[in-house]
Design a protein that fits this description.
Elements (H helix, E strand, L loop, with lengths): L1 H21 L9 H13 L7 H32 L7 H16 L24 H14 L7 H17 L6
């Protein structure tokens, strides 16, 4: 009797966990506006609706968004410290950057505007696209989150995004 009860509780808990978690969209560790942009990009540009491929796309783009946000914060900190007369390359300037970044990270931005995703081609499933179309959509997705094709980070984003989907669905490999 107790084994059946424990098994029943375990089944109910796992079902609740699966169903309960699936009703809330992932934020990928981003603010609401950035997470919305990532989800919208995966849906409207990459042509993914739900499932592990969608989550792989979201996770990959979210990693890139976090890297961009981190780089932007460091740039802002560097500029603020330079405006205080601190010379780049000195210990004082480096400590200033660390303190600025920590202060900025601990403050909460209440009114973050959500970026809008420009309309792409009419929606088409990623899995019905040609390899060329898949590559173009990955490039458009990385451009959407703020990377320029002239930067090395852009091509890393494209590669990571395509590989994250291939790792879920090997049949999409070129």
């Amino acid at each position: 009797m107790s084994i059946r009860f424990i098994a029943g509780v375990a089944l109910a808990a796992s079902t609740f966990g699966l169903l309960g978690c699936s009703s809330f969209p992932s934020t990928y560790g981003l603010d609401a506006g950035s997470a919305s942009m990532v989800r919208q990009t995966c849906n409207e540009i990459m042509g993914l609706r739900t499932g592990p491929e969608f989550e792989a796309c979201g996770g990959s783009l979210a990693d890139t968004v976090r890297s961009l946000q981190d780089a932007n914060l460091t740039l802002q900190a560097d500029q603020a410290c330079s405006e205080q007369g601190l010379v780049r390359g000195t210990a004082e300037q480096a400590k200033c950057v660390v303190k600025f970044r920590r202060a900025a990270q601990s403050s909460v931005v209440a009114n973050a505007d959500a970026a809008t995703v420009p309309a792409a081609e009419p929606w088409q499933s990623y899995f019905s696209m040609s390899q060329s179309q898949q590559a173009e959509r990955a490039e458009l997705s990385c451009a959407q989150i703020g990377l320029h094709p002239a930067t090395s980070g852009f091509w890393g984003c494209v590669s990571d995004l395509r590989h994250s989907i291939v790792n879920i669905r090997p049949d999409t490999m070129p």
